[in-house]
Write a structure and sequence with these properties.
The chain has two helices and 24 strands. It has 327 residues and is mainly beta. The chain has one domain: TolB, C-terminal domain (Neuraminidase, 6 Propeller). The protein has a four-stranded antiparallel beta sheet, with no helix packed on it. Strands 2-3-4-5 form a four-stranded antiparallel beta sheet, with no helix packed on it. A hairpin with a 6-residue loop joins β12 and β13. It is globular and about 45 Å long.
């Protein structure tokens, strides 16, 4: 066992002793069912201020209107085997999409910008093929931060200039023996807190939420384990509410978890309609600010690696506290 894995296991034992957190049961509702036979497996979700949803599905970016009409907004120029990952709306309203592939021989590691009106696609950053850009976040200066689940790093893409490795640490790495998806899969979901001086990152294989504090000049001050729990193994997308509670889509366990400001973990929903939940986004219009939307990726059941009928789509959950405004 590597040092950072042993540390995470130790944190798990310590956290469960000091901070027993009772689960708060809830029942998500499915608002949109998608067709797995057509490749409609939504990995990530973003929502604009008009209530439109944007989904990464294979090499395509889908758009879902408030009336739940589904169209294809854009097709990314990716090779067969490459697919879109994180989808986020940036500071100026642009739609950013990351992409990757499990085969390092493919040239699929990019961040794109997609015009929300025309569907035009432009390359923002290109990475080495052995990387796996996954989720995205933005600082107040308009820089983009991208987790790399394969390399176990965080890339920074300045508004002007080339991308560079902003953060590298063993805690960001996946499990070398295989991990949650059969390959090492580390840094995944990423989100800034309201001060933009703390960055939270989910490590899928370790079942941990990491906290990165930023120095006044914007550089990282280091990485610490904020929460580690067996119930977080398979953690994918994350989202913060205005009270600082972190919602976590636990993909491989069909669970939705929360981590409070003290690092205490609770399971909000488990099983039922959940099928590989992978991404979360709070509503931003006046009528849905108290709604958390999440995607059922359903990739394990669609690929046959997990028994059962796949149920990809969008689910909703009523929440007491609205989401933290993004970006």
């Amino acid at each position: 066992m590597r040092i950072h894995e042993a540390f995470a296991v130790g944190m798990l034992a310590l956290g469960s002793t000091l901070f027993p957190a009772p689960a708060r049961a809830a029942t998500p509702e499915q608002i949109l069912a998608l067709d797995p036979a057509s490749g409609q497996l939504p990995e990530s979700i973003a929502i604009d201020d008009r209530g439109n949803f944007y989904l990464s599905m294979g090499s395509q970016v889908g758009k879902v209107t408030p009336s739940l009409a589904v169209t294809t907004l854009a097709t990314l120029p990716l090779p067969a085997g490459g697919f879109a990952t994180g989808v986020k709306i940036g500071p100026r309203g642009d739609l950013f999409v990351a992409s990757g592939a499990f085969d390092p021989a493919l040239d699929a590691s990019y961040v794109f910008k997609v015009d929300r009106q025309t569907g035009g696609v432009a390359v923002v950053a290109a990475f080495e093929p052995d990387g796996f850009p996954n989720d995205l976040a933005f600082d107040d200066a308009g820089a983009t931060f991208a987790t790399d689940s394969a390399l176990g790093v965080v890339w920074k893409i300045p508004r002007v200039g080339d991308p560079f490795i902003w953060l590298s640490d063993p805690l960001l790495q996946g499990n070398a023996s295989g991990g949650s998806f059969g390959v090492p899969f580390g840094a995944n979901g990423i989100a800034f807190d309201h001060t933009k001086r703390k960055l939270y990152i989910a490590n899928t294989d370790l079942g941990a939420i990491l906290e990165v504090r930023l120095l006044p000049n914007g550089s990282p001050a280091g990485v610490a384990v904020f929460a580690a729990d067996a119930r977080l193994i398979g953690a994918d997308g994350i989202a913060l509410d205005r009270a600082g509670t972190l919602y976590v889509a636990v993909n491989t366990q069909d669970q939705l978890a929360t981590v409070d400001r003290r690092g205490r973990v609770s399971i909000v929903a488990s099983g039922g309609l959940l099928d590989g939940p992978s991404s979360l986004a709070f509503g931003v219009t006046p009528c849905d600010r108290h709604t958390l939307f999440l995607t059922n990726f359903a990739i394990s059941r669609a690929s046959g690696t997990q028994p059962g009928v796949p149920n990809p789509g969008i689910l909703s959950l009523s929440v007491r506290i609205p989401g933290l405004p993004l970006p």
